[in-house]
Specification:
The complex is a heterodimer of chains A (about 350) and B (about 325). With about 350 residues, chain A is an alpha/beta fold. Helices cover about 40% and strands about 20% of the residues of chain A. Chain A is built from ten helices and 15 strands. In chain A, the strands form four sheets. Chain A has a seven-stranded mixed sheet, sandwiched between helices. A four-stranded parallel sheet of chain A has the order 7-6-8-9, with helices on both faces. In chain A, a hairpin with a 3-residue loop joins strand 11 and strand 12. With about 325 residues, chain B is an all-alpha fold. In chain B, about 70% of the residues lie in helices and about 0% in strands. Chain B is globular and about 55 Å long. The chains are: A alpha/beta (about 350), B mainly alpha (about 325). At the A-B interface, helix 1, helix 3 and helix 4 of A face helix 2, helix 7, helix 8, helix 10 and helix 12 of B.
Chain lengths: ~350, ~325
């Protein structure tokens, strides 16, 4: 039985002592000075390394962001790492941040899935002398150096609500489909949209569905929603996967034209539904511009440049800061897509 | 000597890290130790479960649920006196539930724990809803538990106590017997049902440690946290040389298996920049391929080794493949 192979306890003792040495060793060496690392610790290549962490990888929207980021990195001569978890989880993202802290990248740009969970890792990175930016979605209490926001949250939230109201004739029951209740960007838009809804007293919000930023899951949830509420007249969806998921459910239920659907998603995902008449209009910003501006601003921070409103950035124009938070840069205004203009935008995806 | 296979794998992985110009230093060890600690704790419990020819698919959901229980208490100094004991009690209760389904209702472990995997995940959603919850930052001293000095010490103590239990207890010999031949074990006077209850409850206790380690690192938990964690744990244990049919295993192998998996993850995460320059595809695509190859190759090698040892008259590992005491 277990005691017929005497070598294993020896290995147990060996492994245990290795572990003990390792712990003792790390205890001493894992304390970077409060001022960060010396410049001599730069990697062999002298180019700065900027690491960019989306909520998850391999979806159209973040692939488009990546294209912009890569182009900007080539332009300004920095090395870019664009990587992240394949599911939108906090612990998956945090593991990437830890890896990059050890690799001593110059800047980490993160789109945090869960702002509370990322906080400690932002602090760790900053203690190691790394500049930390948020982009796409914020973690305002994490102490990040800068947030690069694709739109003014209020402008987008209100534009979405106004569009839905006009399509619904300002009356009827409506519902929300949203990727998660944690992601700061989606929920800030949701709050602004709900606040705007008070202008339309004949409209009533009856349900909020959480879709995990997964198109297939969104489709299932919205299908259930349509079955449960046959009188539903409109859906507001808040992320690039929820909108096509909801559109798919509406189309399959044969309710195209009866249920208004408004949201923000990518032209590549929505083109079909716009042409089929399931969706009359949706919104987006240029995700490539978001990616490229994030990389450029990260490099400015690494170079120690102070960023001020009105500073000129190539391919973008003058920097605009959010009226609500002076550490938030706004990329631009949302673009309204319809069947007429959807083909004239190519975000490279 | 199953451990040699695993140590060779670890060395190969370190060579991959070196080849892709990643630093191999104390920081790497620290990161591995801290990040893989939840899997590490769960693998200890899982080794004993699989030893009895059982399996526990619910450990990932259970960890998320225990973390949810912890997160539902208010922050502050009282957290230690309320949430922590409540979390431990919940973990033991959940583990005992699995034990009762398997031992008392005689359900096949894979079915029983597939059921509780779903139920525990559902309960986590019941507690947390769709939002993350994180009182942990405001609990004095809680984050200290996630730092390498404390967490490493807990890992060490857990590993050593598990090792003593595995290699030097009558209890563990009885588990070997149950896994080898349950009926023979019963006739030999082993209280089979009680042992099964105990082993699943131990898995629950390990889930408590994993939940504390997870929340002390990440500071918050959501109901969808730790997806597919059970698969990683089972992979580590099986790769480590424990037979899923029960009756024989390798405790040290399980612990090394955890590091093989953690180092693979870390190596592929850190190799992104190297991969972008040198490979025509994204290096992260290798993850599933490598894990599958490791598992199939590792288990295949263990089996080959076992059969060879069985044939050799003085083979030391002979006893490990012979089914039970019969």
């Amino acid at each position: 039985m277990a005691h017929s192979h005497p070598a294993d306890p020896i290995f147990a003792a060996l492994a245990a002592s290795c572990l003990a040495i390792a712990i003792a060793g790390c205890g001493e060496e894992s304390r970077p000075g409060p001022t960060g690392d010396s410049p001599g610790a730069a990697p062999a290549s002298t180019r700065a390394v900027i690491a960019m962490l989306p909520k998850l990888v391999n979806i159209d929207y973040f692939n488009a962001c990546k294209l912009g980021a890569e182009a900007a990195a080539r332009d300004i001569g920095v090395d870019l790492i664009f990587d992240g978890p394949s599911e939108a989880t906090a612990e998956g993202q945090n593991q990437f941040i830890e890896t990059w802290i050890r690799q001593r990248v110059a800047a980490i740009c993160v789109a945090p899935n869960q702002p509370k969970a990322v906080r400690r890792f932002v602090e760790q990175a900053q203690r190691a002398g790394i500049r930390v930016l948020t982009w796409d979605t914020d973690a305002p209490e994490s102490g990040r150096d800068l947030m690069v926001s694709q739109v003014d949250d209020k402008v987008l939230g209100e534009a979405l609500m106004d569009e839905l109201a006009s399509q619904m004739g300002e009356q009827g029951n409506w519902a929300i489909a949203i990727g998660s209740l944690d992601a700061t960007n989606l929920n800030t838009w949701r709050r602004h949209a709900e606040a705007r809804a008070s202008r339309y007293p004949k409209m009533k919000l009856i349900a909020t569905e959480v879709t995990k930023e997964n198109e297939h899951f969104a489709s299932q949830r919205v299908e259930t929603l349509l079955n449960a509420h046959p009188d539903l007249a409109g859906i507001l969806a808040f992320d690039s996967n929820s909108v096509p998921g909801a559109a798919d459910a509406i189309q399959r239920a044969g309710k195209a034209g009866k249920v208004a659907l408004v949201g923000n998603s990518t032209p590549s995902k929505m083109r079909k539904y716009v042409k089929d008449g399931v969706v009359r209009a949706f919104f987006l910003w240029d995700p490539r511009l978001l990616g490229s501006l994030t990389v450029r601003l990260a490099q400015s921070l690494v170079a120690g440049k102070a960023l001020r409103p009105g500073d000129e950035v190539p391919g973008y124009g003058k920097l605009v800061f959010s009226p609500a938070d002076p550490r938030v840069v706004i990329v631009g205004n949302p673009i309204r897509f319809t069947a007429e203009n959807v083909d004239s935008y190519d975000f490279g995806i | 000597m199953k451990s040699i296979v695993l140590i060779t794998l670890l060395v190969a992985e370190l060579a991959f890290l070196a080849a892709t110009s990643q630093p191999i230093d104390a920081g790497l060890l620290r990161g591995l130790l801290v990040q893989s600690s939840p899997i590490f704790f769960l693998a200890i419990g899982m080794t004993f479960v699989i030893l009895t020819a059982g399996i526990d698919l619910s450990v990932g959901s259970m960890t998320a649920l225990v973390a949810a229980v912890l997160a539902s208490f208010p922050a502050g100094g009282s957290f230690w006196a309320t949430a922590v004991p409540a979390g431990l009690a919940a973990a033991l209760l959940l583990g005992a539930t699995n034990g009762a389904l398997v031992a008392r209702l005689d359900m096949p472990p894979i079915v029983a724990t597939l059921g509780t995997m779903l139920v525990f995940r559902g309960l986590a959603y019941g507690i947390l809803g769709d939002s993350e919850k994180g009182p942990f930052a405001e609990v004095p001293g809680y984050f200290r538990l996630g730092e390498v000095e404390i967490l490493g010490a807990v890992v060490l103590v857990a590993a050593v106590s598990g090792g003593v239990l595995y290699y030097a207890s009558r209890w563990s010999r009885e588990l070997h017997m149950i896994g080898g031949n349950r009926i023979a074990a019963r006739y030999a006077g082993v209280p089979v049902l009680r042992r099964q209850m105990q082993v699943y409850t131990l898995a629950g206790a390990c889930a408590f440690l994993a939940a504390v380690a997870y929340t002390a690192q990440n500071g918050s938990v959501s109901a969808s946290a730790l997806p597919e964690l059970e698969l990683k744990v089972i992979t580590a244990v099986v790769l480590g040389g424990t037979r899923v049919q029960g009756g024989s295993g390798s405790y040290v192998g399980s612990l090394l298996g955890v590091f093989v998996i953690a180092l693979l993850d870390e190596g592929l995460r850190g190799a992104k920049r190297w991969g972008d320059e040198h490979l025509p595809f994204d290096v992260s695509y290798l993850r599933h391929l490598a894990l599958g190859a490791l598992l199939a190759g590792g288990v295949g090698l263990h089996g080959w080794w076992g059969r060879r040892a069985l044939r050799s008259p003085r083979g030391r590992d002979a006893g490990t493949t012979a089914d039970g005491a019969a």
